[in-house]
């Protein structure tokens, strides 16, 4: 049983397209996150949801919109994709805010 | 918000030797300091963590030390093995946890045979 699962694992798309990444956790955790890992491996938080409510919204372009239909799911929708959006996007979850993250396997997004 | 600095960015050690990675943090209210290991193409995985009311924690060949006064913490790996080769990230949870975890920029650990 995969604790935190993301789909798709790879995503190659053209500039200007709109795409979504899905994340689901079966750990019963209350908090979920999206992190972006750039080509230099730096992990930067984008969003955090606690029980379906947004609690962190870092400075990311408003082309990125998270959606949490329930506390087990946190999806990321990206509009008008740009070359600079190419990165690995990791979903994570934790029982309490900021403690003991479990990461998903990542989605490698390539914008061409 | 929290700021975490990690050094070195690359560390090469002989198999069997020890490796030490150091991190500093800025928020004196930070209370939780995990370390993650990320192998090539894989997800970051938690290997050890420490809370601010403890100065040291060990788990087999891995240990973490915390100096709250100086606001720094370190990862120690003894008797290194080839499978220890990976990128290691330190992180800190700012006061209240509202900002989630702030990560250091990572250390690429290379174990030389």
Describe the structure in your own words.
The complex is a heterodimer of chains A (112) and B (113). Chain A has 112 residues and is mostly beta strands. Chain A has strands at 4-7, 10-13, 19-25, 31-37, 43-50, 53-57, 64-70, 73-78, 87-94, 102-103, 107-111. Chain A is 0% helix and 56% strand. In chain A, strands 2, 4, 5, 6, 9, 10 and 11 form a seven-stranded mixed β-sheet that branches. The radius of gyration of chain A is 13 Å and the shape is globular. Chain A starts with a strand and ends with a strand. Chain B has 113 residues and is mainly β. In chain B, 0% of the residues lie in helices and 56% in strands. In chain B, the strands form two sheets. In chain B, strands 2, 4, 5, 9, 10 and 11 form a six-stranded mixed β-sheet that branches. A five-stranded antiparallel β-sheet of chain B has the order 1-3-8-7-6, with no helix packed on it. Chain B is globular. The chains are: A mainly beta (112), B mainly beta (113).
């Amino acid at each position: 049983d995969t604790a935190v699962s993301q789909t798709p694992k790879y995503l190659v798309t053209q500039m200007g397209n709109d795409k979504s990444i899905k994340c689901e956790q079966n750990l019963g955790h209350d908090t979920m996150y999206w992190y972006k890992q750039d080509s230099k491996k730096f992990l930067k938080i984008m969003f955090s949801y606690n029980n379906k409510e947004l609690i962190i919204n870092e400075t990311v372009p408003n082309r990125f919109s998270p959606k949490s239909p329930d506390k087990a799911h946190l999806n990321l929708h990206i509009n008008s994709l740009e070359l600079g959006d190419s990165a690995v996007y990791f979903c994570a979850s934790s029982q309490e805010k900021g403690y003991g993250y479990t990461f998903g396997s990542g989605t490698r997004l390539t914008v061409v | 918000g929290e700021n975490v600095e990690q050094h070195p960015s690359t560390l090469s050690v002989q198999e069997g030797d020890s490796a030490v990675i150091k991190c500093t943090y800025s928020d004196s209210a930070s209370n939780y300091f995990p370390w993650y290991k990320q192998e090539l193409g894989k997800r970051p995985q938690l290997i050890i963590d420490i809370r601010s009311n403890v100065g040291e924690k060990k788990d087999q060949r891995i240990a973490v030390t915390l100096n709250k006064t100086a606001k720094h913490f370190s990862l120690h790996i003894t008797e290194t093995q080839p499978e220890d080769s990976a990128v290691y990230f330190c992180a800190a949870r700012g006061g209240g946890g509202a900002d989630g975890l702030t990560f250091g920029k990572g250390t690429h650990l290379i174990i030389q045979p």
